[in-house]
């Protein structure tokens, strides 16, 4: 989650207005929310055809039917785009509208395929306000204290206070069993309203707490950036005895799903238009699983229309959530399946895809770990690949893994998907052993 105070400083009134809209829209009748989504979708499609060369070429033949598609909220006749599309047509996907200021965000996702996206100020506003509402649903008010278990490499303290965010930061770089008493002592003194963490890290912390017979009960936890598996949820609930919230989003501003206080996953429909596409190309029905396809609402500088995320989500059977919010609901987020890498000094690290973000000459990559002191990095080269890409990757990995880990590089023609049809970025035998499901107390 990228919840930056600098965005609030740059756009305070716009963020406040959009956040106010989000607080109001979660109580709208479903037909009013649907009408708002239709208006925004119509604007997005028509603006893209007028101002973005790529969409002028690919969507103009369909423009006469835009009203029909919007009325039905059904875009299946329109072509899909992928991360590879963005990589190959980046210049064409940039808006020609004058005066739009942009910044670059990079993502590799859990498939290890890096790409660059342009975002504008309006998308920063929408993202900040929407994540603010995600945190509100988890019990956080702006400025409250929270614990942030994050992946940033750190050579400093095991726990540090980020005064700008009023957050107690626990870098996963230092994540070790012997540090657990230090973490818990810091949590008790800091008194956060929330612990925000990657599921794999929080699951591991809870296992260590159980092994050490230590207890701590925060008001709530919020997991993000990885799939929250059922066995992880069970361990976290058993050890921490608190509400568990979870959310799913993308650096490229593609989609947003999060849980309410009842534990139901809601699609944040004010953020983007989200489709679930089954293998047969049709919309996944109630209880069915489909790939997340998104159309952005708030990024005029590089709109993403029918963007394939590669992530799989299962629909609910159709029952409304008791919380009363009008948003569409989903039962399960199946995507982003990844292992952690176990280091020789006993740390358990996810999020290593960040080491690949600057490697523009890498088409696809994968980390394979058979033993704790060695990883193999499989790389599918892009035409622009150079040794500088390998050096960047190795430096990035070293910043997380340290010098004791042997890193081997292997160049391959393709990386095969797993049983779920997705390429798993990290395949780690030691990681899987560390994350095996555990029974809860009394189970």
Mean pLDDT: 87
The CATH superfamily of the largest domain is known as ANL, N-terminal domain
Q: What is the CA-CA span between the terminal residues?
A: 34 Å
Largest sheet: 12 strands, mixed
User: Which structural category fits the helices and strands?
Assistant: alpha/beta
**Roughly what fraction of the amino acids lie in strands?**
15-25%
Radius of gyration: 22 Å
Question: Could you characterize what this model shows?
Answer:
The protein is of the alpha/beta class and 443 residues long. It has three domains: 5-137 and 248-333, 3-Layer(aba) Sandwich (Rossmann fold); 146-242, Rossmann fold (3-Layer(aba) Sandwich); 341-434, ANL, C-terminal domain (GMP Synthetase, Chain A, domain 3). The chain is 30% helix and 24% strand. The protein contains twelve helices and 20 strands. The strands form four sheets. Strands 4-5-3-6-7-8-9-10-14-13-12-11 form a twelve-stranded mixed beta sheet, sandwiched between helices. It has a four-stranded mixed beta sheet with strand order 19-18-17-20. Strand 6 (194-197), helix 9 (199-212) and strand 7 (221-224) form a beta-alpha-beta unit. The longest helix has 22 residues, at 30-51. It is globular, with a radius of gyration of 22 Å. The model is unreliable at 437-443 (pLDDT under 50).
């Amino acid at each position: 989650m990228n919840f930056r105070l600098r965005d609030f400083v740059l756009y305070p009134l716009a963020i406040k207005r959009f956040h106010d809209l989000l607080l109001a829209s979660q109580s709208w009748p479903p037909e009013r929310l649907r009408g708002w989504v239709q208006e925004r979708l119509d604007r997005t499609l028509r603006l893209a055809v007028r101002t973005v060369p790529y969409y002028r070429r690919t969507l103009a033949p369909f423009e006469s039917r835009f009203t029909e598609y919007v009325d039905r909220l059904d875009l299946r006749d329109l072509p899909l785009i992928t991360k590879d599309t963005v990589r190959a047509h980046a210049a064409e996907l940039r808006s020609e509208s004058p005066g739009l200021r942009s910044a670059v965000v990079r993502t590799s996702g859990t498939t290890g395929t890096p790409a660059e996206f342009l975002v504008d100020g309006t998308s920063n506003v929408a993202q900040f306000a929407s994540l603010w509402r995600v945190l509100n649903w988890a019990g956080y008010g702006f400025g409250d204290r929270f614990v942030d278990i994050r992946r940033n490499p750190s050579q400093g303290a095991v726990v540090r206070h980020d005064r700008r965010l009023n957050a107690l930061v626990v870098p996963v770089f230092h994540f070790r069993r012997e540090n657990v008493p230090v973490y818990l002592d810091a949590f008790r003194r800091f008194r956060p309203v929330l612990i925000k963490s990657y599921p794999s890290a929080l699951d591991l912390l809870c296992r260590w707490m159980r092994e050490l017979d230590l207890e701590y009960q925060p008001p709530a936890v919020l997991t993000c950036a990885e799939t929250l598996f059922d066995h992880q949820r069970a361990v976290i609930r058993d050890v921490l005895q608190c509400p568990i919230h979870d959310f799913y989003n993308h650096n490229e501003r593609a989609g947003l799903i999060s849980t309410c206080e009842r534990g139901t996953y809601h699609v944040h429909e004010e953020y983007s238009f989200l489709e679930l596409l089954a293998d047969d190309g049709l919309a996944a029905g109630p209880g069915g699983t489909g790939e997340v396809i998104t159309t952005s609402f708030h990024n005029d500088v590089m709109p993403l229309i029918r963007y394939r995320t590669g992530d799989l989500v299962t629909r609910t059977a159709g029952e409304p959530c008791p919380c009363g919010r009008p948003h569409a609901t989903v039962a399960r987020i199946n995507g982003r399946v990844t292992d952690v890498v176990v280091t020789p000094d006993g740390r358990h690290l996810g999020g290593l895809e960040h080491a690949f973000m600057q490697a523009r000459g890498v088409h696809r990559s994968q980390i394979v770990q058979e033993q704790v002191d060695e990883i193999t990095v499989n790389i599918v080269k892009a035409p622009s690949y150079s040794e500088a890409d390998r050096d960047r990757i190795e430096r990035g990995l070293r910043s997380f893994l340290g010098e004791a880990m042997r890193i081997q590089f292997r160049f391959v023609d393709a990386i095969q998907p797993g049983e779920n049809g997705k390429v798993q970025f990290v395949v780690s035998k030691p990681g899987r052993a560390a994350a095996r499901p555990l029974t809860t107390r009394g189970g």
